[in-house]
User: Fold this.
Amino acid sequence: MASDEPTFEVWALARDGTVSAALAKQTGMWARPTWSLPDPRGESRIAFGVALEPSNSEKSRYALDVMDRDGGNKKQIFPQAKEDGLVAMRLVWSPDARQLIAVRDNDLWLYDFASARWSQLTANAASAQPRWAK
Assistant:
């Protein structure tokens, strides 16, 4: 049944249709969930956006959250105090899932999970589509 609800959710669906589960609610229409490859422990994570204004998610800025592939251990990694959210969810995981790169205000920023810190990689405001190569 169709809904006029202006908020959106991130769901996990099995290819064969045997499993479906809501992993995150009120994420916004531009959540763009992105799965990592398994990390050295064999675990994968999902990075996704959460609209800062869920009822106006089309125009809202977004926080960046990560969670385990089963929806557990949700954590917001951006923005921090007094920072604006992301305009669009554009990110890429490192091959070992220990870092990710996100586009913030048209520059590339690296998030390292071990240190829980962001590092700015570019400062020319001309970055749009991050890619990671081995």
Residues 10-120 form a domain with the Neuraminidase fold (CATH 2.120.10.30). The chain has a mean pLDDT of 88. Strands lie at 10-13, 20-24, 34-35, 45-51, 62-68, 75-78, 91-93, 99-104, 107-112, 117-120. The chain has no helices and ten strands.
